[in-house]
Amino acid sequence: MQEETKRILDMVENGVLTAQEAKELLEVLGNQSTVITPEVKEEFKKEPYTQENADFIDELKRDFTVVGERFMQFMQGTVEKIKQFDFEMPFGEPVVFQEKVVKEDAQFDDISIDIANGKVEIYPSEDATTYADVTVKSYKNSTEEEAKTHFNSEFVFTTEGNKLRMYSDLKTTSVQVVLYVPKKAYNQISVRLFNGDFIAQQLEANSIKVKTTNGKINWNELKFGQGDIETVNGSVQVQDVEGESIEVETVNGRIYVDGNLKEIEGSSVSGHVILTTKAKEARKVEGTAIAGNVELYVPKDVSLKGEATSQMGKLDVQLPDVTHLNQSEQLLHKKVVFTKILENESEPLRVHGEAKTGSVVIRYTSEGE
Q1: Where are the beta strands (DSSP E) in 215-322?
Q2: Residue 90 pLDDT more than 50?
Q3: Are 283 and 262 in contact (CB under 8 A)?
Q4: 56 vs 121, higher pLDDT
Q5: Are 200 and 121 in contact (CB under 8 A)?
Q6: What secondary structure does DSSP assign to 41-70, as a single string?
Q7: N or C: which end of the chain has fewer CB within 10 A?
Q8: In the predicted model, what is the mean pLDDT of the chain?
Q9: Residue 242's beta-bridge partner residues?
Q10: How confident is residue 121, by pLDDT bands cut at 50, 70 and 90?
Q11: pLDDT higher for 232 or 352?
Q12: Cα within 13 Å of Cα(331), Cβ side
């Protein structure tokens, strides 16, 4: 049963099975009677083998039920978007043109972006102006003049009160935006994309939230109070950042976070989770994955209170100066609990790594900070 379960989960990680298909196979597997040979009895005589497997499979089924619901929401949203497409004009070679939209003397502290189809990049402008370089690919209009007229009537780029707002609900038009804004500390940056990547570099804000259904997310050299990233299908890469807290969630994709961060939470259903904090004031680093590995990297000169768990993978906690309070290698329930208390350290950094089928690795940062 253990081998069959691992095969199912490997197929999920490799994209061979969907979450719903995995859930159905696990239900069938859980209903089968377990054949216990003398060798199996000897290996697992200390633990109730059948019950342990049943509990594990029930837990996986609950996980994949949630994942299946998330994918169904994604598919329903996709179908609704497709229903709104105008298929009277056949898809062919697009009409491509570029526009530069400038907002003169714009004053704002919030940025809100909502793009149905297209890529968004945000950078600080060199001359403290606000403008957007837009590349438009229209699959609906036959001439460039028609495409420009349609784009200008539907694309919104304006200021409302204290907010810069960009909006495009064009379904058969790809809108690729490179936005330049004055270099300053913003209150909130909010981005929603249905289909497209997001890149941000050298920005500062109290709150940064990005949500995309299908697309990669890349943050570089950002400073924020609270960061929030959510994607259904796409990898997340966050590097050289500084912030109070960041939470990253993806259904299918790799998560990589590295920066001076006090709290990090990363969760992926199918993908590796790699989290690194270099902040000596860090309070929490938590990584979880169902079908994927978890790697956590923490500063050396801080107090620690941590835990690593995995049902089917390896636990690799290479922290030579910690005390192992508890270590369990039971079937489908591997666990390591550790602690380290330094003088003049008030609250320890809480470290938690959990993987259902993959391995959990915990190390000090290479800088030894």
Answers
A1: 217-220, 223-233, 236-252, 255-270, 273-277, 284-291, 294-298, 304-310, 315-317
A2: no
A3: yes
A4: 121
A5: yes
A6: HHHHTTS-HHHHHHHHHHHHHHHHHHHHHH
A7: C
A8: 81
A9: 223, 260
A10: very high
A11: 352
A12: 21
Q: Which residue has the higher pLDDT, 85 or 230?
A: 230
> Which residue in this structure is represented by tokens 């007229």?
149
Residues 6+ apart with CB under 8 A from 230: 210, 211, 212, 248, 249, 250
CB 309 within 8 A of CB 289: no
Give the pLDDT of residue 344.
72
Return the structure tokens found at 289. Answer: 């994955």
The pLDDT tens digits of the residues spanning 159-177 come to: 988 999 999 988 778 899 9
| Whether the Cβ atoms of residue 283 and residue 272 lie closer than 8 Å to each other | no
Element (H, E) at 207: strand 204-214
Please compute the mean of the pLDDT values over residues 52-77 and round it to a whole number: 54
Token pair of 222 as six digits: 């950002």
Q: How far apart are CA 28 and CA 21, in angstroms?
A: 11
Q: Residue 338 is encoded by which pair of tokens?
A: 């550790």
Task: State how far the Cα of 230 lies from the Cα of 247, in Å rounded to an integer.
Answer: 8
Higher local confidence (pLDDT), 182 or 195: 182
Residue 127 CB partners (closer than 8 Å, separation 6+): none
Nearest to 174 by CA among 212, 215, 120, 136: 136
CA 361, 365, 366, 368 torsion-angle sign = negative
pTM of the shown model: 0.78
Q: What is each CA distance from 232 to 242, 267, 269, 301, 324, in whole angstroms?
A: 25, 12, 10, 36, 37
With b meaning 16 or more CB within 10 Å and e meaning fewer, what string describes 88-125? eeeeeebbeeebebebeeeebebbbbbbbbbbbbbeee
Structure tokens given for 153: 């009537």
